[in-house]
What we know:
Chain A is an alpha+beta fold. Helices cover 35% and strands 22% of the residues of chain A.
Amino acid sequence: xxxxxxxxxxxxxxxxxxxxxxxxxxxxxxxxxxxxxxxxxxxxxxxxxxxxxxxxxxxxxxxxxxxxxxxxxxxxxxxxxxxxxxxxxxxxxxxxxxxxxxxxxxxxxxxxxxxxxxxxxxxxxxxxxxxxxxxxxxxxxxxxxxxxxxxxxxxxxxxxxxxxxxxxxxxxxxxxxxxxxxxxxxxxxxxxxxxxxxx
Amino acid sequence: xxxxxxxxxxxxxxxxxxxxxxxxxxxxxxxxxxxxxxxxxxxxxxxxxxxxxxxxxxxxxxxxxxxxxxxxxxxxxxxxxxxxxxxxxxxxxxxxxxxxxxxxxxxxxxxxxxxxxxxxxxxxxxxxxxxxxxxxxxxxxxxxxxxxxxxxxxxxxxxxxxxxxxxxxxxxxxxxxxxxxxxxxxxxxxxxxxxxxxxxxxxxxxxxxxxxxxxxxxxxxxxxxxxxxxxxxxxxxxxxxxxxxxxxxxxxxxxxxxxxxxxxxxxxxxxxxxxxxxxxxxxxxxxxxxxxxxxxxxxxxxxxxxxxxxxxxxxxxxxxxxxxxxxxxxxxxxxxxxxxxxxxxxxxxxxxxxxxxxxxxxxxxxxxxxxxxxxxxxxxxxxxxxxxxxxxxxxxxxxxxxxxxxxxxxxxxxxxxxxxxxxxxxxxxxxxx
Lengths: 199, 433
């Protein structure tokens, strides 16, 4: 399915990354699991941003999902989580556009100490909705191949992004952001990856 | 049993929610570590139903012991009236937890047969199962079983079936197909419904064409969607009375830069020449229909998807299917059964046995050689009616342009384009130079 699940803006500090704003679309997820999936997506955004060096782009393919990251030279970072059919080029165009607009609205000096609840940037939600259809989005931005010169590094799974010796399972187990329920969700979801099964 | 009273309570509360809330949207089992909060595992909030996973093993054990106690007597219809009435809530619980158990579905069938369960309620229930497990073949089979009973009953009384039944099925299958990737069970069910209901509601086909176009645009790499679309296109071939979709016709004339957009027959004459005398009017309108549908697919649908989403092999395979059918329809129209195109994979579709046997050897030889080396010369030596038609000119031009355009893309896309080119040259016998 051509779909965007999550669009977030983070600030990459010297040791950890902090969320500045995020928008999610979890229509397809069952009602009682939306909370867990949301938490988990945020966790992924943070994990990936922390492992991307400044002034670079990465795209990580994990199963049926794609995670696109762009960290600017001034440490402002954007993440898009989409499915594998959504065109990569459009995702990265979206990131550039959203980060530009964000830095115009909110002064860069305040980024390190901002908290998510204090940030007013409602455009993010409308961008997430508008870009669900990449065709319309492309007409809107009129950017065909105007991506900057930054090379996009492509990874075939999330393990390739992690530092040497790290494992996703361990990171999940150690994480303080994930509640007990989200951790239980992670362990069961790993077992039942239904897209590849006949049943 | 230790947990029987708890299980009983859980099953009863699930039952009462399902009975009372007719707008229940979905059911799910929510993973939890254990029962730490000491409260009911049944979650119910704004028309969503959930069950916490810690209780599953106790409840399921209870369900199995209860159900297998009565399994035999139910099958032999010796079950007491009261027990029969009181079986459904346990069956529902069992199927919520494990929808793969055919025995439980069969017990439900037995209850339906003895009029203890109503159709409406069973459609609702199996729909709920499909919101948790989108690929449950058993649930789809159960729905088909119910539908068959309804259809039989109606045809006995001479009443046509209601469109509501069909629409309900279409909604259920599209939700299930959206829920899980590659959900062939859902599409098979949709095809079954179309086959059984289309004779009563021929207008539904145009709507389905529209639906499936939208669907493949949103799921560009899923073969299931293309497969269903090909099924619909095949319907145009076999049903003669189906009405042409005007929007397709206008789009095709626009894309071909033709201005005679008032008479569809003109398009056919332009592309393939005047109809042979032995064809009836009905036949000709069938050719017009199928030509327009195929050309619309080639010139509009595939183009639109390819502009936005590249590197998906299914789209190329779909193009092969369309082109192959165009050639075949053209041959049939021109009355030329011995065309090169029949050497394709689907060679068995439509031509008579005699021509097959006399050319049989040549065909197999060519196919074998195709795997090894290029042998296109054999086709070139025998130009036929199709190759001197306008359709052939249009198609070769379009294909050449399409391939060149896609070769400029990424390495994967170029590879796909080259493979397609090779197929066109060697199997279909197009001259692309």
